[in-house]
Amino acid sequence: MKKTIYTLFFLSGTLMFSQEKSNDTVDVSRTKEIQEVIIKSQRKKQFADKAVYTFDKEALDRARYAKDLLRTLPELKLDPVSNSIASTKGGTTLFLINGIEATDLQIRSIAPTEVVKVEYYDIPPARWATRADTVVNILTRSTETGYVFGTDVSSALNTGFVNGSAYANYTKGKNDFGLEYSINVRDYNDRRVNSIYDYQLDGKHYRSNEDRKDHFGYTFQSIALRYTRLVPDDYAFQVKLNADIFSRFSKGVGQSIFTQDDFSEEHAMFKNNGSSYIIPKLDVYYSKKLGEKDEVSINLVGSHYTTDTSETAKEWIINSGLSVYENDMMLKAKQTSLVGELAHTHDFAAGKLSSGYRISRTSISNDLNNLAGYSEYSVNYLEQYFYTEFSGKLNKFSYRVGAGLTNIHNKSAENTFDEWTFTPKLILSYQLKNNQNLRFTGSFTPVSPVSNALSSNVVQLAPNIVQRGNPFLKSQQVFSNALTYSFNNKHFDFNAGLFYRYTDRVINQYYVQDNVLGGYALTYENGKSGQRYGVQLTGSYKPFGNSLLVAKLVLTPTSETIKTSTGALIKNNYLGNSFVLSSEYKSFSLQYEFNIPVYSLSGAFLNTNENQNHIFVSYKLKNWTFSTGMYWIGMPSEYKTKSLPESLVDYKLNTQIMNNKSMFILGLSYDFSKGKKTELQRKLNNETAPAATF
């Protein structure tokens, strides 16, 4: 593994010092802030924390809306399954329009000719760093009165797969009104699950080999209503009311062979579960200019809702009908979330200073019935974040220096965790040539456990096997650094980097002896440490120098280890990969996406990422777009999990959704715009905590 990493980095180093000359960028020695240096003739400009892209007339004429322009960025792709833009590297991507958090439908509502440039942050600024791995900010032109609307639907012909959406915006003077609706429906009646539990208990050998067929699905709907008032060079105000409506279900039946030493018997079972919630959310934003160099912004977000989760399962011996176990869990979680942030920016001659304070509080009141009986308990999550950072540039040297203070205060019925952590961040960048750049980044960040890891809930998984949370978990502390080389010309847009991530008190999921119910429990612990290091190669290649043929590639040879609380060392190596081939010619576009799934560490398990083998084609005719494609060509979507040799329980899981196999899709969309609309240059973007489920 180490030889592979050293070889790949040597190759990237060879490219780093090549004598390639580019006319795509120019050197600028004087700037107020590093992101503002851009000229019309360039395609890409690399800065310390981001790349800035502009688009030529051919690209603007070919695109239907701004979303099509984002597809052309070397590290972004169109995910055909969700019909949304995603990073080729994975992780969470946050989209902004002039600094305001934007949905996929808002991006669609921007005409290509309105796009001035796109900022691609692979190192997010402090105000977004805790929320996303990548930030994409679309900068648009000035306001004019106008309106825009559109609709889109795509559906499979032989199974329950539907994506639908509609949007409308109207701008008059300094006021803008927006309305959005989207729906995603999945209804699959052929999900096949094989799970094996193999373990020693009280001197006996047990094995449960279960085959199950599920009918499962979900429906997710989102409705948003937006009002914006923008007075240029004075103030901006926005209020947004939206509701997320979600429900899911799973109904499965199956059989298993249960073995105890040399004795075996046939079991039958059913497993049903589901959850639902409606999240109403109010988001208020206000910013005010204070002279030419200062701006103050405030953002308040609040939500209150109830999540209902249920799970019913039973397993019995076929011959006798005797019950092996029965599981009946009902959870009603009432959740209140509030987020507030205050920020200030000041422009100096040498750079820009940004400072702020954010507080987020989530209270969950749980009404629970499970294997341990009935209980009522509350959990409170509080996080405070003070931050300041200064960014600037000196000739070919750019930098961003940040310092923060983070407080995590988690309180449950069993435990209270309270800790303050200093969170520094450093980004250094040096422009080797007009088209080559070398960057270093280092940061230290605390990461709080997710709600289900802290939960005291108990769920039966199999005979003698349950799952439970751990209310005594502490936050993880993550130290990350990376060295990245960037190179671009007419044909290549390429990044090669070394990365190293060290996690103290790493949260690890593992099996332990269950002293309450007997058997084993799958639970969580704070391990001693975790490490992940490797090389990441990403980028695109255009053999003809245009969009007629584009190949995007991600290769990430990685080595990872976890040291458990007992000192056991868990190791894993993998080669992360993703390949996208696309072509655009006049009104036609085509994309093919492929990967080879790999196992990566997740606590006591190795999990594969989702397999991809998709192709889709679209044709644009005036305001209409017709599309078709086939997803998971020749294969079902598949997900695998297996335990590590150190685990007390040898566990294997293989899940296949047969409905996805060679799934044929047809789609139709219509988009119309007249004039231009107000886009708020918003500096703060926050989100309340997701629904608490187990």
Automatic annotation (TrEMBL):
Domain Outer membrane protein beta-barrel per the UniProt entry, residue ranges = 340-595
Q: Which InterPro entries match?
A: OMP_b-brl_3 (IPR041700)
Keyword annotations for this protein, in alphabetical order, are: Receptor
This chain belongs to the protein called TonB-dependent receptor
